[in-house]
Amino acid sequence: MASSPMTSSAGSPRPNLAFRQLRGQLSPGEFAAAVRRAGLEIGERVACDARYIGRVEAGEIRCPNYAYERVFLHLFPGRTLADLGFAPRETVRGRAARARTGPGAGHRAAPRPYPDPYDQLNAEQPSTEESDVLRRAFMTGSTATVAAASLGLTGPLNTEAAAAPRRVGETEADAVEEAVRRIRLLDDRHGADGLYRRASAPLRNAFALLDAGAARRATSDRLHAGAGELAISVGWLAHDSGRFDDARSHYAEALATARTAGDPALEAHAFCNMSFLARDAGRPREAVRAAQAAQRSARECGSARLLSLLALREAGAYALLGDRSGCEQALARAQALFGRGGTDADPEWMSFYQEAELEGLEAQCWSALGQWGRAARHAQRAAHVAAARTPHFTRNIALYTAEAADDLARAGRPDEAAEAGRRVLDLLDEVQSSRIQSILATTARVLLPHRREASVSAFLDRHANVPRQA
Fold this sequence. Notes:
By secondary structure, this protein is mainly alpha-helical. The protein is built from 24 helices and no strands.
């Protein structure tokens, strides 16, 4: 069943037919989702998407890293890497592989103008296994190390090097895209507050790569998209940690990048976040305009799920304006579009937009309209679905539960509100989000008149002792 080893003296990749056969009738996106689910079953969080599957099938990834190896072998029990069409690790990894010069050594990559952190790690570690463990530690330790390991740049670029007429390539584009994925994964797990301060350096370096220029148009397009997505990710970290002016600046930078590159998908994403920010900053009319602009850009993308999310952004803005009719029309449109299901056209960044987020955003609409009981039902449903289906999205589970607590408190159900608040407090050691802390603080104020009730008193006492994030 195994395909021939994908090594060629000419260095051209050979398609991995065995892996393609295992995918069967699933689309690359559906198969990537199955890989991610398999990873969660064994505690591995791999950022697998349709593009990664395509690279494997094209033979560009001749042997997966150790995290993917564990996931693949779990997904296909009883098979070896060779059965999955991969080449032996020793032929493609480590110092020995790079030192090969004879026939069958594989393609030797041209020297890169920017350092590869994996090469640096391997230079210090003679063992390929140890190198992989170390690089995984880099990628899961903190945002500073995530950014450095992903981009291979830990501080400002060397001015002389940046000014040199060098061209960047696929390796650098891969690194920028991986930085975006890693930051999003950490945000999903831990929230924004502990990440934002350390995320500016990789963003500066991504735009420095853009300034350096790419040899090929396709690579340049990837760099523009990657740098724009990174600006949005850093903007979201600022947004979620209450730094609205910083967030506005980063989103504007992403929008400018999108328009420079003629990238409607990136433009839609930037407008989406600008709408969310405007709503949170108390500018609902601006939020409506941004959501509508996002929908105009998104029509070129072919993703019903993206249009659904953008309709929800518009609904939230109408709710803040007190326009119930406009809100309900946008909600109905969002639900109908969501019901069409996901496709390969759905942007990678939308992995968070599942049933739980649909419920959570609808809860926010009813809350803004003062329909507290209805809002609480949707928020509770969002928290329940998220905990059952996406337990790794810890930050979102905490957010939905905090919103449910606030809605329950305002609906005159203090005991239930206190219980929901307690569940959020249980997650605060793992999640750092100013947004969630602000919601809890508001809930505590609403519950103060009920402090004689034992459950409310216990919640208020415990909340009072929670360290506040700077």
